[in-house]
Amino acid sequence: MSGSCNLSSILTSANWAMNGSLEPLQAESGTAFPLSSEPLLPLSNAYFSTAYSAQETDKWYCKPPQQWSTRNILEWIGHHVEDSQFDGNTLDLVSCTMDGPTLCQLPRDKLVSMFGGPLGERLFGHLLDLKAKYGAGDLSLTCDFFNSLFEEYPEIMNVSGGDAGYDILTSDINSGLSIYINQGGVKPEGDMTPMSDYGYESSQDSLDRSCAETLRFPSPSSPDSVGTDSEQDLTEERLPHFTKGEVKRRRGRPKKNFLTAGSGSEHLRSKKNKHAPRGTHLWEFIRDILIHPEQHGGLMRWEDRREGVFKFLKSEAVAQLWGQKKRNSSMNYEKLSRAMRYYYKREILDRVDGRRLVYKFGKNSTGWRLGEVGV
DNA sequence: AAACCATTTCCTGCTT
DNA sequence: GAAGCAGGAAATGGTT
């Protein structure tokens, strides 16, 4: 694309947003998406760690993508660029400058052609998840989401055979409307269900969207959104108190099922990219909560930042959030803490004796120390 | 396909 | 008694 600015230009030009001395960026004539007059912000690690000048409610993660401004979109793309360690210098500024409705209408292949395969797929998948999440209260947005989904993945409409029962595809967190897919059909379900998970591709994705205070904890009688082998398994595994003494619950991680992974985009993405995205380990998830307190304050806090000592303030809420990330609504602090204890041996965590809910990062953990990149 | 890794689940016993 | 800690054992899903 001739004459376009790349992201390094943004990083340079965006300094005007900080020192106010540079001219606003202008798009080339014929640009498909008009540039916003809003100041553009740098898409760098430093930005994401330090620039919180904008009101929190104006962040991309605080509103539906349909309402994003150009700056929101740049922040969003920058977040994925940073999180995936993608080389932002290869991107066109023109590709990044559009409004929310324009972005939401872009088909998958268009995003892929604009941003390249890995990043484009990533952006598209996350956008689907965001549309699913924010479809609440606006049926057109939900329809938009399904139109996109069915357009991109028509095989969903041809699911047949397999286990009986409905697999949750998505849910409307405000209205309680849940959409299930069963053997080629889509069934709306009126009952309230646990909040659907989002397509976490980084810990920030989840945390941006969730605060402990707004978490919905699954009721014992509600259907579970986590994939199980079958309806029978769902009963046996998720409602053990109904079958206690009759069926022994299987140990280990519950099985996933096709189409049960939130929007399905992560499942489909994983086929193409076998490498787990950054930030998918528990200790990284914990670390990110601690280093982004402005996004999820009140869940955890540093006891001694220099030494890496931290404390769970809302242990169950953190566990639920971790469960969302792993698409496992049965996660709790007991299980999370068991995983944390495994880190002692690997020296990712050090023991802190005698203090409840207090842990300490070990020598094999990174990214939390003062002075490290982005911290 | 198999080995490996990082959890997840369940459990018993202990401590606060 | 509840909550948390410790760690063994077995299981799963994803990656190599």
UniProtKB/TrEMBL annotation:
Keyword DNA-binding: yes
Gene Ontology molecular functions: DNA-binding transcription factor activity, RNA polymerase II-specific; sequence-specific DNA binding
InterPro entries in alphabetical order: Ets_dom, ETS_fam, Pointed_dom, SAM/pointed_sf, WH-like_DNA-bd_sf, WH_DNA-bd_sf
Domain ETS, first and last residues per copy: 280-362
Biased composition (Basic residues): 247-256
BP-aspect Gene Ontology terms: cell differentiation
One Pfam assignment: SAM_PNT
Compartments, record wording: Nucleus
Biased composition annotated in UniProt, kind: Basic and acidic residues: 235-246
Swiss-Prot/TrEMBL keywords: DNA-binding, Nucleus
SUPFAM superfamilies: SAM/Pointed domain, Winged helix' DNA-binding domain
Domain PNT: 47-134
Gene Ontology CC annotations of this record: nucleus
Record-stated family: Belongs to the ETS family.
Stated name of the protein: ETS-related transcription factor Elf-3-like
